Amino acid sequence: MDLGRAILFSITVLCGLVLYCQTALAEEFLVGGPEGWSENISNWPPNGTTFHAGDVLEFVYDPREYNVVVVDKVGYETCRAPLGASANDSGNDQVYLEKGANYFICTKRGCCEKNMKIVIIAE
Q1: What is one Pfam family matched by this protein (predicted)?
Q2: Is the pLDDT assigned to residue 101 strictly greater than 70?
Q3: Are 31 and 41 spatial neighbours (Cβ–Cβ below 8 Å)?
């Protein structure tokens, strides 16, 4: 019985350590740099930036002018949010990256058509 408790305790500690390390390693990125999420997004992210699953993108913007919508590849290419797409409009949104391609567009005032969209590939 004591051996079973020791094994369970060890597994619990190990799982907690793994979760802590993943959280501690996550980075936060301000989308667009000092200008934030705006129509001048074309030079972001800087060349050579590496993203990982679990990293956080912080979108800061004027919610009267812009929003952030998480879309799929088709939504990104067509500038149309599919049904059920996650829309953010607080003006200060944090989005966790998933492994693979992460697509973001603005659906207000035709800004996506003006190239206010990004795709981030997370390792």
Answers
A1: Cu_bind_like
A2: yes
A3: yes
DSSP string, 98-114: PSEEEEEE--STTTTTT
**Burial class of residue 41, CB neighbours in 10 A (0-12, 13-18, 19+):** buried
DSSP state of 33: G
Between CA 34 and CA 101 the distance in angstroms is 24
Place of tokens 């799982």: 15
This prediction's pTM = 0.77
User: Which contiguous run of DSSP H or E holds residue 17?
Assistant: helix 2-25
pLDDT in tens, 36-55: 999 888 788 988 899 999 99
Length of the chain: 123
Give the CATH superfamily of 27-122: Cupredoxins -  blue copper proteins (2.60.40.420)
Using one digit for the tens of pLDDT, what is the confidence trace for 45-86? 988 899 999 999 999 999 999 999 999 999 999 999 999 888
Q: Kindly report the CA angle at 103 between 101 and 108, in degrees rounded to 5?
A: 180
